[in-house]
Amino acid sequence: MYSCSKFFFFLSSYVGGPFVPTSSTPWPSLFTKHLLNGTGVLSSSPINFGSRQRCGLHFDGVVTAWTLRALEVALAGGCSNLHTVDKNRLSRHELSKLLIEKGIRIKSLDSKSLYHPSDADKVAGAASIKSVFVPSLLDQMGHSAKENITNWAAPYLDRHMKFPQRTLVVYNLGTLDNDIERANANCFLSSIEEEPFVDYAILNRANLNLHRFSSFSNVEVISEPNIDYPMDLCSYGVYLLRLKLKVLQYDFFFALNEGSRGPFSLAWVKLFRERAQESHASIVGSMISIEKTCHVQTHAFGMDHRALRLFLGLPTCKKFNTWPEQIERTELALSIQALAKNLGICSMQKDFEMVDFRNSKECKRVSRQYRYRRNCSGQGCNPVLHISRREASVLVFVKFGGEIVRDRVLSVGAFEMIRALKCVSPNIG
């Protein structure tokens, strides 16, 4: 029944697509043009053929296109059951080896090189993303969301793609255990207005009555169960994963929680975007801390798609033994990984204005200067300890919750100063 067919495609609900953002060409022809030029098997993304012991005609998270000749070789070699794990059938590694031995070329849309089994891991790291199809979030959420936010979105977040100049602000509204956090929440919620290029997602774990936003076209209130996530970064990640392809509607993402006091400036989203652009940074926050290493503090921070890739790959939903380890493996890791990939980080602080942290020597230099000017060391160099009333308006948001309040980190004078700061509201003045 298949003798008249030239090409065969294997795909399932484990992939999202077709995703052809700039071309009206039917997606099958993007595959078949390679098959017409001598390739026997073409995948939408690199495959590690040795990853699972199952038949090679279908792979979770990718689409494969086959010529009739390649399919006949695979079936003759024992690859007839597409989904059942069977030690008597060919593994992916064995199948790829068999195809290559028979003179059949295996390629990926991402890679120009021939696909040899020994090169699978190397090819899987290819940076050029032209996949058309990508792994579906449904394939990731079930087994990984609670333990580890996985890097599902790499093909979507390629630097060559064009995204609308639109910002998504994710606000995690927690349990509001004290008057400080309630004041913080009121401060931020009062600042929200209808804007053409900014959308807000309010994760309402406090079960507050937020019907006032029902008429706002750019505000979504999500009633969330009060799950005991190890940190707010996990909440952001789980929500962003649920958005699926909607993330493509934005080029900038900003996240903060009820532990942040602010904003202290109107049009604050524009201020963060501009700071990131002029600093050539993928991650921007209110503050950069020099504790352990230079990193953006995540009580209020923004990121572009390149940083979002890294963020979704962090173990933000895994609970580590200690809180310092939790921060080190997530908050610090985000900045460290970004800098390792030559992606800049920046903050609103005057202390670090126009500092290129991609240069490791710069981090050491400004750290020495900061310690000298502030006369601090270790945890005493937490930037929140050195905020003046004048600096607060520049920072836009100030960390004023969590361990800062719970552990009485601030002096009485600093505590009262921050509590007295007046947030801006579009309805005031």
Average pLDDT, all residues: 75
If you consult CATH, what is the topology of the largest domain? Spore Coat Polysaccharide Biosynthesis Protein SpsA, Chain A
Biggest sheet statistics: 7 strands, mixed
Are there runs of 5+ residues with pLDDT below 50, and where? 48-61, 81-88, 112-160
Strand proportion, as a percent range, falls in 15-25%
CATH evolutionary superfamily of the largest domain:
Spore Coat Polysaccharide Biosynthesis Protein SpsA, Chain A
Number of helices: 14
The coarse overall form would be elongated
Supply the CATH class of the largest domain: Alpha Beta
Rg computed from alpha carbons, rounded to a whole number of angstroms: 25 Å
General description of the model:
The protein has 429 residues and is of the alpha/beta class. It has 2 domains: 7-134, no CATH class; 137-419, Spore Coat Polysaccharide Biosynthesis Protein SpsA, Chain A. It has 14 helices and 17 strands. It has a 7-stranded mixed beta sheet, with helices on both faces. It has a 4-stranded mixed beta sheet with strand order 1-4-3-5, with helices on both faces. Helix 6 links the parallel strand 7 and strand 8. The radius of gyration is 25 Å and the shape is elongated. The protein starts with 6 loop residues before the first strand and ends in a 10-residue tail after the last helix. 41% of the residues are buried.
What does the secondary structure layout of this molecule look like, with pairings?
Elements: E1 7-10, E2 15-16, H1 27-35, E3 39-43, E4 64-67, H2 68-76, H3 92-101, E5 105-108, H4 120-124, E6 134-135, H5 137-144, E7 167-173, H6 179-189, E8 198-204, E9 219-223, H7 232-243, E10 252-257, E11 260-261, H8 268-278, E12 281-285, E13 288-289, E14 295-296, E15 300-303, H9 305-312, H10 323-340, E16 344-347, H11 360-374, H12 389-395, E17 398-399, H13 403-406, H14 412-419
Parallel strand pairs: 3-5, 7-8, 7-10, 8-9, 12-16
Antiparallel strand pairs: 1-4, 2-6, 3-4, 10-15, 11-17, 12-15, 13-14
